[in-house]
Amino acid sequence: MTNTRLQKIESIWNELRSKPFPESGYEAFADERDFVELDTFAAGCISTFISSAGKLDQKRYDVLKSCSEDLSIGIKGLEPGPFKSYAEQLHLLSNLVLEYLDGKLRECAEVSSVQNRDAGADS
After folding, report:
1. Residues 56, 45, 22, CA angle at the centre, nearest 5°?
2. How many domains does the chain have?
3. Cα–Cα distance for residue pair 72/40, rounded to 1 Å
4. 3-class secondary structure, 112
5. Cα–Cα dist 52/105, whole Å
6. Of the candidates 64, 76, 74, the residue with the CA atom closest to the CA atom of residue 29
């Protein structure tokens, strides 16, 4: 990964995955979803994103988006401490990946729009 945004995401990911899952997280729930499940699914999507040099298929994008939304809701109900910090970092990382992908999608749409406009001008 050479892009600085990708490097930042990878750095945060390496920091997060070097930490053990906090004990208090095993009993925590977010919007009726278990935090262990959210961590597992989000981590799988983020890992795929990193190993694919900033790419993610639509299914994993949707899973990560759902996890991020549930984390956003669930974090509000957590007591300050190691698990809340862990969950906040996972949420931040999920959002960084989603924002990166959304930005790439916009860039592709803009390029396509310009190409279509230019193709129409050639007619």
Report:
1. 160
2. 1
3. 16
4. helix
5. 16
6. 74
Nearest to 74 by CA among 63, 59, 66: 66
**31 near 73, Cβ under 8 Å?**
yes
pTM for the full predicted model: 0.81
| 27/11 Cα distance (integer angstroms) | 28
Q: How far apart are CA 62 and CA 83, in angstroms?
A: 24
Average pLDDT per block of 10 residues along the chain, 123 residues long? 82 93 82 84 96 94 96 90 94 96 68 50 53
Q: What is the DSSP letter of 8?
A: H
Which pLDDT score is estimated for 1?
A: 43
Range of the domain at 106: 4-122
